[in-house]
Amino acid sequence: MEFINDAVLHAAGQWWIYPVLLVFFFVDGFAMVVPSETLIVALAALSRNSGEPNLWILGLTALTGAMAGDNMAYMLGRKIGLERWKWMRRPKVQKAFGWARYELEKRGAVLIFTARYIPWGRVAVNYVAGTTGFPHRRFLVLDAFACFTWVGYSIGIGLVASSVPLLHDYPLLGAGIAVVFAIILGIIIDHALRWWHKRLGRNDAAEAPAESTVPEKGNLPEERSRVA
After folding, report:
1. How far is CA 128 from CA 21, 78, 103, 132, 190, in A?
2. Model-level pTM?
């Protein structure tokens, strides 16, 4: 166990860890395999108890990689659509694309921000934003703000979860506890955001019939002529 601790701490202090992390965060934006926030949380917890890796460089690396990955997904969505690859045609993925399309039409800014906290949700939203022609400049600004808060949130979770004094001499254990804490909190946030978006969707459905009953100005019945 001591050997593993030393090996991990040694790797965390090497210069090459940041390019590797940059690639990982970049790929996570358009082809998520493992939620990248768990890696940020683990490394932030490790940094608190050992000093490595550098939190500022970690945060900048995560922010740069996340933004680049999100914009890559946007460009792929614009160029190839939503059915080019086999994984895109899976029922669950198509359902996620359909949800993202509907929400993007209704409340694009809110969706781009909140989807960054939903692992599969952000991938679907990024692709659909490009496919539907959502303005790229607006997407870039909203995504930058979302990624910035997401990085701060992930680092904060790692620092808080590893702040127990007993874990100072066991950095790997602290990182593991921080990841478990982040996963539990992430599930709660994921369900809360999905519930909120579903509630907004139900409100939209309830308002639609009311709007459809309002006659258009050009279709109002002609006023009956008054009897002299």
Report:
1. 26, 8, 10, 6, 19
2. 0.71
